Amino acid sequence: MDELVREWTAQLLDSGNAAALIAGLVALVLVLNSTTWLPLRNVVTIAHEGGHAVVALLSGRKLNGIRLHSDTSGLTVSTGRATGPGMVFTLLAGYPAVSLLGLGGAWLVTVDLAHVMLWGCVALLAAMLLAIRNAYGVLSILVAGGAAFAVSWFATPAWQALCGALLSWFLLFGGLRPIAELRRKRSRGRAPNSDADQLARLTGAPAGVWLTCWFLIGLVALVLGARWLLLMPQV
């Protein structure tokens, strides 16, 4: 056990892993600090609503549009059967999408494909822009897409990797906080039409079950993503 701890410590002191660790600490502060979390939560909302939209299309539903609001809430509207697997999976997808995107980004950074991650973000945001139906949503997508494009086009590979790691960490940590926030809102009776409550009405499984599932998915993604970013050999 001591030998394993020494090996992990040596890996963490590697320059690449140290940079990833610092990026993780910065991301954690950004998520925990209310002042920075409020504006940056838009990034999480974009990923959340994008998850709803992608799964709605994959399940055969028609995507009518996405709205992003200045209070960092969002709404994805699709048409199709009001019940059944398509609707269930569409509602289910939002919260895990954030953590899974962070996990995917962590893997790409680890295998030295941060530029692919950044260009993927630009492509996904460009596609999402076509479905946005309000001015604030358009502005949010353009700002996020512009930032990803600027890093992918102008930054050196080292800075691309660092920014990719920071974004991955932010999504991994940021995927968990909204679940905790929703739990608190529900305990005060302030979110009767949340994704969890709609799933409860559709499936009969209590909303708490869905909250627990989302939290566990996010936690597993965080642990695995952290291992990839910190403990695997740098490419």
TrEMBL record:
<keyword id="KW-1133">Transmembrane helix</keyword>
<dbReference type="Pfam" id="PF13398">
    <property type="entry name" value="Peptidase_M50B"/>
</dbReference>
<keyword id="KW-0812">Transmembrane</keyword>
<feature type="transmembrane region" description="Helical">
    <location>
        <begin position="88"/>
        <end position="107"/>
    </location>
</feature>
<feature type="transmembrane region" description="Helical">
    <location>
        <begin position="159"/>
        <end position="180"/>
    </location>
</feature>
<feature type="transmembrane region" description="Helical">
    <location>
        <begin position="20"/>
        <end position="40"/>
    </location>
</feature>
<keyword id="KW-0472">Membrane</keyword>
<feature type="transmembrane region" description="Helical">
    <location>
        <begin position="209"/>
        <end position="230"/>
    </location>
</feature>
<protein>
    <submittedName>
        <fullName>M50 family metallopeptidase</fullName>
    </submittedName>
</protein>
<feature type="transmembrane region" description="Helical">
    <location>
        <begin position="113"/>
        <end position="131"/>
    </location>
</feature>
<dbReference type="InterPro" id="IPR049500">
    <property type="entry name" value="Peptidase_M50B-like"/>
</dbReference>
<feature type="transmembrane region" description="Helical">
    <location>
        <begin position="136"/>
        <end position="153"/>
    </location>
</feature>
